[in-house]
UniProtKB/TrEMBL annotation:
UniProt source species: Amphritea pacifica
Catalytic machinery residues: 404
Name assigned to this protein: 23S rRNA (uracil(1939)-C(5))-methyltransferase RlmD
Residue sites binding [4Fe-4S] cluster per the record: 90, 96, 99, 177
Single GO molecular function: methyltransferase activity
Pfam families: TRAM (PF01938), tRNA_U5-meth_tr (PF05958)
Enzyme Commission number, as recorded: 2.1.1.190
Catalyzed reactions per annotation: uridine(1939) in 23S rRNA + S-adenosyl-L-methionine = 5-methyluridine(1939) in 23S rRNA + S-adenosyl-L-homocysteine + H(+)
Residues annotated as binding S-adenosyl-L-methionine: 280, 309, 314, 330, 357, 378
């Protein structure tokens, strides 16, 4: 086709030049806390996310980046401090990326987390709970029984053993950790001293520590097998901490001795787990969470419970012990096998476990064709949007949703509401003190499915 040369081609409007960031700190009023623990203020009509700032504070903030709709920055100095501000207990707090709310009182951390989730439920999910239950709380320090520790080496040969820095992939040197279980809280300095002057250690990339009630695992991720000197060092370290040494060379299958698996207790039950299996990091809150779940589900012997993303049986086995038959589903075959062993170990015969990808269509699977009147849903951070329509086709009376992502919970609560489920009970759990991470529990009760809105005018039947 020949172009019309007389036609004027409109040019896009010229883009306004970006204003340079202020070279001096700017004064901001902080009004709220973001989902990742940053203070929220306003600067020149845009939202500003400011690290180490709290709601109610007046701060001088140094802006570090401008995006289309917001600024980012950090607190340079505090003009008016929040009454809830406190001095961080950890000397590594301002460099380490592991904790980001140590400057906020513990009680206020949990209160703000609850407010954040309730706001998202209302704003995104158009949902309000009928009852807000008391939060589950525990120890604020030395609660973490699982951690991933990085290892690297400076140009001068000095080992670095620690966690990633704030907003960086680089490691920060750590001596001890205030949130890690006391049994291993000094592992950083002990490993660093042991590796000093032992040659190249860059082939040792990370240490995973996973603790049971007694003992646990010290797992190394390696680019190649340990040399004799380093094997001797880590064998001695594992013995010192009374942990089982596990070696994982990248690209090869791990070898685990099933006879020496580590255990943790849930009331009278014992659950064993392997290195790399998912466990809740906070044992104290996990016990409370399982008890609360069983309470909200109002378990009876004639119930049929479906536990989705069941893992090792953390919820399934206590439900079965309460007398209700349960079917647990997990995407990892090794964890399904471990859940089966845990049921056998605890002499529970009213539970069964299957491996399935819960992102797939489930209607052809035998276990899905059975009837269930109660469902436990403990999805990963991405939530369960694709799974919820399938669950709702089963029409369970109750759906108990355990969430580690408020945004996913809010989105999924809207989907459940559209299917006729009302949010009856809600609570937050202090699973991750000193951090912005939020764990919450929501009980949805079946009601009437919402009817689709009628169109006022379809446009059909009109003759032109």
């Amino acid at each position: 086709m020949k172009l019309n040369s007389s036609r004027t081609i409109k040019q896009p409007p010229a883009r306004k030049p970006t204003q340079p960031l202020p070279t001096e700190p700017v004064e901001l009023t902080i009004n709220a806390l973001s989902h990742d623990g940053q203070g929220i203020g306003r600067y020149q009509g845009k939202t500003a996310f400011i690290a180490n700032a709290l709601p109610g504070e007046q701060v001088l903030a140094r802006l570090t980046e401008e995006k289309a709709k917001f600024y980012t920055g950090h607190t340079d100095s505090i003009i008016t401090a929040s009454s809830h501000r406190t001095e961080p207990a950890c000397p590594h707090y301002h460099q380490c990326g592991g904790c980001d709310l140590q400057h906020l009182e513990n009680s206020e951390q949990l209160a703000l987390k609850q407010t954040q989730v309730l706001e998202q439920l209302e704003r995104i999910g158009n949902t309000k709970p009928e009852h807000i239950d008391l939060p589950l709380t525990g120890s604020h320090w030395h609660y973490r029984r699982s951690a991933r520790i990085g290892i690297n080496q400076l140009f001068d040969g000095e080992p670095i053993v620690g966690f990633r820095r704030r907003s960086s992939h680089l490691l920060t040197q750590i001596d001890s950790c205030r949130v890690l279980d006391k049994r291993v809280s000094d592992i950083f300095s002990r490993v660093r001293e042991a590796l000093r002057d032992t040659g190249d250690i860059k082939y040792i990339t990370q240490i995973d520590v996973d603790l049971g009630d007694q003992g646990g695992y010290l797992s190394l991720r390696l680019k190649k097998p340990l040399n004799d000197q380093h094997l001797q060092i880590f064998t001695a370290l594992a013995e010192h901490y009374e942990l089982s040494l596990q070696l994982q060379v990248i690209g090869s299958d791990p070898q685990v001795d099933a006879s020496g698996l580590t255990r943790y207790a849930l009331d009278q039950l014992e659950l064993t787990f392997r290195p790399g299996d998912f466990i809740q990091v906070n044992a104290e809150i996990n016990q409370q969470m399982v008890n609360k779940a069983c309470q909200l589900l109002q378990l009876k012997p004639d119930d049929k419970v479906l536990d989705l993303f069941c893992g090792l049986g953390n919820f399934s086995l206590p439900v079965a012990a309460a007398g209700a038959p349960v079917t647990g589903i997990e995407g990892s075959l090794t964890m399904v096998e471990q859940a089966q062993r845990n049921a056998l170990h605890n002499q529970l015969q009213n539970c069964q476990f299957f491996c399935a990808n819960l992102a797939d269509d489930l209607k052809g699977l035998q276990w899905f064709r059975q009837s269930y009147n109660k469902v436990i849903l403990d999805p990963p951070r991405t939530g369960a949007a694709s799974l919820i329509p399938q669950i709702c086709r089963l029409r369970p009376e109750l759906i108990l949703y355990i969430s580690c992502n408020p945004g996913a919970l809010a989105r999924d609560s809207k989907l459940l509401s559209e299917q006729g489920y009302q949010l009856n009970n809600f609570l937050v759990m202090d699973m991750f003190p000193q951090t912005h991470h939020i764990e919450s529990m929501a009980l949805f009760v079946r009601g009437k499915k919402k009817a689709p809105k009628k169109k006022l005018f379809s446009g059909k039947g009109i003759s032109r």
